[in-house]
Each structure stands twice: as structure tokens, then as C-alpha cells.
Amino acid sequence: MDFRLVFKLFLVCLLGEVLMAEGLACNWGTRVTHPLPPDIAVKLMKDNGIDKVKLFEVVPDVMGALGNSGIQVMVGIPNDMLASLASSVRVAEDWVTQNVSRYVSRNGVDIRYVAIGNEPFLKTYKDMFTQTIYPALENIQAALIKAGLGRQVKVTIPINADVYQSDSGMPSGGNFRPDIHGLMISIVKFLSDNGGPLTINIYPFLSLYADPHFPVDFAFFDGAAAPVVDGGVTYGNVFEANYDTLVWSLEKNGFPNLPIIVGEVGWPTDGDVNANIENARRFNQGLLNRINQGKGTPKRASPPDIYLFALIDEDAKSTEPGNFERHWGIFYYDGSIKYPLNLANNKNLTAAKGVQYLSRQWCVMRPDADPSDPNLPQSINKACTYADCTSLGYGSSCGGLDVRNNASYAFNMYFQTMNQTKGSCDQFSNLSVITSIDPSTRIRGGACRFEIMIDIGKGGKTRKPTTSSAGRMYNSIFASSFLLGLLAFVS
Length: 491
Ligand SMILES: *[C@@H]1O[C@H](CO)[C@@H](O)[C@H](O)[C@H]1NC(C)=O
Ligand SMILES: *[C@@H]1O[C@H](CO)[C@@H](O)[C@H](O)[C@H]1NC(C)=O
Ligand SMILES: *[C@@H]1O[C@H](CO)[C@@H](O)[C@H](O)[C@H]1NC(C)=O
Ligand SMILES: *[C@@H]1O[C@H](CO)[C@@H](O)[C@H](O)[C@H]1NC(C)=O
Ligand SMILES: *[C@@H]1O[C@H](CO)[C@@H](O)[C@H](O)[C@H]1NC(C)=O
Description:
Largest sheet: 9 strands, parallel
Number of helices: 13
CATH class of the largest domain: Alpha Beta
Bound molecules: 2-acetamido-2-deoxy-beta-D-glucopyranose
Signal peptide: 1-25
Structural class: alpha/beta
Membrane topology: Lipid-anchor; GPI-anchor
CATH topology of the largest domain: TIM Barrel
Catalytic activity: Hydrolysis of (1->3)-beta-D-glucosidic linkages in (1->3)-beta-D-glucans
Number of domains: 2
Strand order of the largest sheet: 5-4-3-2-1-13-12-9-6
Low-confidence stretches: 1-21, 460-491
Keywords: Cell membrane, Disulfide bond, Glycoprotein, Glycosidase, GPI-anchor, Hydrolase, Lipoprotein, Membrane, Plant defense, Signal
Order of helices and strands: HEHEHEHHEHEEEEHEHEEHEHEEHHEH
Family: Belongs to the glycosyl hydrolase 17 family.
């Protein structure tokens, strides 16, 4: 082989590596009883090539761990703060000082976006936030500019896909919902004028959950569904069709090029008949393949940033949307692996390292207690009022247990949630006992996990960050001049 050809091949490989290094993005929610220590969670993201994270609120120790981590951050403002932020620029300035400027300058947190509100136009909210969202957006933008962060930090609003619809049922028929049409146009214009993207959450799982007649395969990316033909364009999955409905809606209203971020997309593993490991793996692997291939949609070729929902399970989230709401994690609550995923370059998912657990003991139903004991139902009920029993429901991972194992699961969740404290296995009318034998091993199939919680008293301290931002900058300058040199050589 000719030397130049060998060199060109080498260069192609090298560039391939650099392109692949474009990382993944995910949501990190913190509605949990036993948080994964933030430094372990940050390491978990880095080990798995996740270099962008979206937070729903500003949590000080989480921000501390993200400082100088090389991870870009989108911080969220909860809906319940919109009214006060809308009321005055001063409130917005305080928020930016406390929650953005401070972390950027003192902790080296690479904040790129502020997400204002979260799905404020959900129909279930009625019109609760329609008066405050726009002034809150204006005030935060003004505050960012005043803080000197107008270039670095962009505003956005994460919206649910129900803000647009299509009368024809096809993406090309897309337009914003009539009741908020004018408001959406004002928001989109403001974002466009200020260089902010629109953030959209797309949930094929919820399409399936809401409509039993939804064609199951159309929720996934493997082309198994009958395609939907829209004019000259063919859609093989609901994700693309949904995204393009938004692109059409924007185009129809004069904003064909507004940047779009997919703020949340994922599949839960428990809490519903369609929420299981197999479906979640099928969906997320298909999604990751698209991301790694840099695939766009028929209507917009350039791929958006896609934030996976979510990094870990959250056992204290509201179950109002459904029991699945606590099981969206790629990882379990402790950063352990639910199912294998191929990330890129044949790299497999890696579990969290260094997690400290409570003792290996469980609270279960006494072997000599009677399953027909009249106190049993109220005891289970008590346990499940304080602990997460969403895996016990119909079609869930522990849904098929007999009465005894069912009770044991509930008692154990309570015991673990209470940090295995003395007395917390004594609350169930003399029906429970502590054991050191893992109850999951006695259950066929092994899908039902009797958790042991993280010991948050231990190992929760933030370690010193390992890479300084100066070091990273040096590395990237080095990498790019190295590449430029090679390009000059070959051409
Ligand atoms: C910073 O944000 C948190 C919630 O994300 C909020 O509770 C707190 O009040 C904010 N600080 C200010 C000064 O607004
Ligand atoms: C990734 O995991 C799969 C099993 O799920 C295994 O076959 C494969 O060898 C692993 N790849 C690497 C690089 O470890
Ligand atoms: C608890 O139940 C066991 C048998 O199931 C019995 O031997 C014991 O006396 C009971 N203890 C109390 C305090 O009722
Ligand atoms: C198990 O407990 C859950 C939660 O209380 C309950 O809904 C379910 O009916 C129970 N199942 C059995 C088999 O007892
Ligand atoms: C469990 O322990 C942690 C750390 O000590 C504490 O913050 C938390 O409140 C405890 N949970 C309960 C239910 O007592």
C-alpha cells in the first residue's frame, strides 16, 4: 500500500475517534430517599461517556460534584418558582446570582443552559403557568445578561410534545395547540432572538401507555413497524414522526431553523406491563445507535442533542403518572446495571464504583406467621405508605409473588428506607423478622430484587476533582493542533 493511503486511513480512524468522542447526555433527577453520592454519580457519567447533564433543580452538593468535571450542565427552574421570577427582575437576578453565577465562578461548573419551568403547558396543569412563563423567561434572560453570562448560558423551556398537534395525523400537519398558539410563537421568537433552543420531551412509552391500540413496534427504532407515509417521506418510528411534527410547526410559523434539544426520552423498566427490561433495552439501544450514528430526521438532517431519561431510578418521585415513574433509570438507584447497553465503539455500560451499602440484612415475614393473619393487610399498607412498593403492582417485576413474599418485599422496603434502624422491622404486628439470607434467591426467575439501600452516612463526601479545567483546555488545544498538522500533511 502506498504510504499516503496508509496515512489517510490512519487519519480517518483518528477522526472517527474524535467524532465518537462526542458524548452522551442524560437527565439526573434527585427525588430519591437514598441519593447516590454526587461524586460517584459524576464518575459514573464520565465512565459511560456522558458529558452533558440536565438537572431539574439546583442542588448544592450535586453542583459541587459537577465543578471542573468536564460535564456541561443544564440547570432547571421548577414550575413553582415561575410566579416569583415573573414578578420582578430582582428576583430573577437573585436566582441567577445564587444558582448560576456562583457555581460558574466559584465551583467551575460549566453551565450552558437554564431550563425555565418544566413542561409548563401540560394539559393537567390547566392554565396555571401560562401567565408567568413568558415574563419569567424574559427576566432570567435579562438577569443572565446583567451577570455577564449572556453568551455562555442560554435560556430554554422544556415542553411536552402535547404543545403541538396535527389535524391530519401526519407530521406535515403539525402546528401549535390553538389554546397556546400565540404564546408559543412569542416564546419561540424570544428564544430565536436570544440564541436559545426549544427543548422538547418525547415519550413513545407514554404513547403506548395512553393508547392500548398504539402499534407497539412503532414505539421502537428497529423498523419492525408498518411505516407511516407522509407525502414523500416515510416514518418508521414515532420518535422521528413526533420530532418532525415540531419541525413542521416551527417552519409553518416562520422559524424553520430554531435549534431543538430533546430534553427527555427513555423507557422505564418496571411499574407497568410494558415497562420491563426487555423493552427498555430495545428502546434505549435503538436510541443510542441513532445518537452514535449522528442520525437526524427526514425533516431535519442535523441530529439534536438528546438527553436520556434518566441516569438513575428515583424512589421518591410522585407516582401520579403511574408506578413506572420511579423506574426510568438506565441504572438502578445505586448506579448498578439493569441491562447491558452498547454505548459506542463496542464499549459496554459500566456500573458505579465505590458505593457503600447498609448491612447485608433484610426484613421479611416471619416463617411462623400466618399469611391469613388479619393484621397483614394493614401492615403491608403501612410499609408501602412510607416506602416504594411500585414493583409489586400487576405486570411489574415483583407482581407475581405469593402473599408471604409480597409481605416480605413490602416489609423490607420499609426497613431499608428507614436505614435498617433498630425497631423499623418491628412495626408490623409481630409478623416480621430480620434475616441475613437474601430473599430474592428464593424466588423463581430472579426478576424481583430485594434491595439493600445505600449507606448515605458513608462515602457521601465530595472528593477533590481530578481534572482541572486548565488541564482539559490544554488537552483540547493540543488535540486540535495535532489534527490540523496532520490535515496539512495529507493534503
Ligand atoms: C436557587 O434555586 C433553588 C431551587 O432550584 C431555590 O430553592 C433557591 O431559592 C434559589 N435561590 C434563589 C436566591 O432564588
Ligand atoms: C459487552 O457485553 C456483551 C454481553 O452483553 C459481551 O458479549 C461483550 O463482549 C462486551 N464487550 C466488551 C467490550 O466488554
Ligand atoms: C410473635 O409471634 C410468635 C409466633 O409467630 C410468638 O411465638 C411470639 O410469642 C409472638 N410475640 C409477641 C410479642 O406476640
Ligand atoms: C401485594 O401487596 C400489594 C401492595 O399492598 C397489593 O396491592 C397486592 O394485592 C398484594 N398481592 C398479594 C398476592 O398479596
Ligand atoms: C437515613 O440516613 C440518612 C443519613 O444519615 C438520613 O439523611 C436520612 O434522613 C435517614 N432516613 C430516615 C428515613 O431516617
